[in-house]
């Protein structure tokens, strides 16, 4: 009986590594990868579970073994690329995009809090604590990394820059949003370095010459900036003409005439 127990212990020791490897093998997730969007949506609605994302992606990485067993595939790397793209698309759709939209909306509402807005009291309606999602370290998936914080920062930088170029008169609002993003969420935003005003809108000099009396009555001369500025306008922009461009434009006008 004593020898039987000894042999059993020896058997356990010799098979220990293989049994642990089999118990920890999560390659079965390849056949159940449809749960990925459901899991990502659950994590987004419960941000405290964000630290577990790295373990889920580590489990998906074991799918490499299942793919390598598929003999009918001609190129194994193609199947891995398809799996990686599928999971990343779900991750972006269920976590990254909603998170970017939620942070952007919060920044806009905070910036325009002086307006008549709906009651946003978190004690009444509750507010999702997304700090755990932003604090998640870069997640490795196969040979690439996914950084939630960096993705959101890039999204906000691009959005604020593009919208500022479209409406330069709102540059101050987006500057406030950048500061709020840093204070509330710890995002290192990049300054747009766009001008707060625009000059040289490309007014037709021929039109000015034909209606010189209208130009004289509607424009004033700014001595400091050396340009003509429209006194009033029906929109949010004022037309300007830089004095340094007038000689060139007038020279071209003479040649055309």
Model description:
This protein is mainly alpha-helical and 257 residues long. It is built from 13 helices and five strands. It has helices at 2-14, 16-24, 35-45, 53-61, 63-68, 76-111, 122-125, 131-134, 148-166, 171-185, 205-210, 212-218, 246-256, and strands spanning 139-141, 144-146, 219-222, 227-230, 240-242. The radius of gyration is 31 Å and the shape is elongated.
Question: What general form does the structure show?
Answer: elongated
Gap between N and C termini, in Å? 117 Å
Largest sheet: 3 strands, antiparallel
For the biggest β-sheet, the strand order reads: 3-4-5
Helix content: 55-70%
Q: What is the residue-averaged pLDDT? A: 79
Rg, please? Answer: 31 Å
- Per DSSP, what share of the residues sits in E-state strands of 2 or more residues? 5-15%
Low-pLDDT ranges? 252-257
What is the string of SSEs from the N terminus onward?
A: HHHHHHHHEEHHHHEEEH
Tally of alpha and pi helices: 13
Keywords:
single chain; 257 residues; mainly alpha; two-stranded antiparallel sheet
Indicate the topology.
Layout: H1 2-14, H2 16-24, H3 35-45, H4 53-61, H5 63-68, H6 76-111, H7 122-125, H8 131-134, E1 139-141, E2 144-146, H9 148-166, H10 171-185, H11 205-210, H12 212-218, E3 219-222, E4 227-230, E5 240-242, H13 246-256
Antiparallel strand pairs: 1-2, 3-4, 4-5
Please provide a brief summary of the model:
The chain is mainly alpha-helical. The protein has helices spanning 2-14, 16-24, 35-45, 53-61, 63-68, 76-111, 122-125, 131-134, 148-166, 171-185, 205-210, 212-218, 246-256, and strands spanning 139-141, 144-146, 219-222, 227-230, 240-242. β3 (219-222) and β4 form a beta hairpin.
């Amino acid at each position: 009986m004593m020898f039987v127990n000894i042999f059993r212990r020896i058997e356990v020791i010799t098979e220990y590594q293989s049994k642990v490897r089999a118990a920890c093998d999560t390659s079965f997730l390849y056949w159940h990868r449809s749960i990925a969007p459901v899991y990502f949506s659950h994590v987004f609605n419960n941000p405290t579970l964000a630290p577990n994302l790295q373990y889920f992606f580590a489990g998906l990485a074991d799918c490499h073994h299942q793919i390598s067993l598929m003999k009918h595939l001609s190129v194994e790397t193609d199947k891995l690329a398809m799996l990686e793209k599928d999971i990343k698309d779900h991750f972006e759709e269920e976590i990254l995009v909603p998170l970017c939209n939620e942070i952007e909306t919060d920044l806009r509402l905070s910036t325009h809090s002086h307006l008549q807005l709906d009651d946003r009291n978190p004690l009444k309606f509750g507010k999702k604590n997304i700090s755990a999602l932003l604090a998640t370290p870069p997640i490795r998936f196969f040979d690439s990394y996914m950084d939630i914080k960096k993705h959101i920062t890039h999204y906000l930088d691009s959005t604020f820059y593009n919208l500022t170029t479209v409406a330069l008169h709102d540059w101050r609002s987006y500057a406030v949003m950048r500061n709020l993003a840093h204070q509330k969420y710890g995002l290192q935003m990049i300054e747009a370095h766009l001008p707060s005003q625009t000059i040289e809108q490309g007014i037709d000099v021929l039109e000015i010459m034909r209606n010189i009396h209208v130009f004289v009555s509607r424009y004033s001369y700014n001595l400091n900036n050396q340009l003509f500025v429209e006194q009033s306008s029906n929109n949010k922009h004022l037309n300007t003409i830089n004095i340094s461009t007038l000689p060139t434009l007038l020279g071209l006008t003479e040649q055309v005439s």
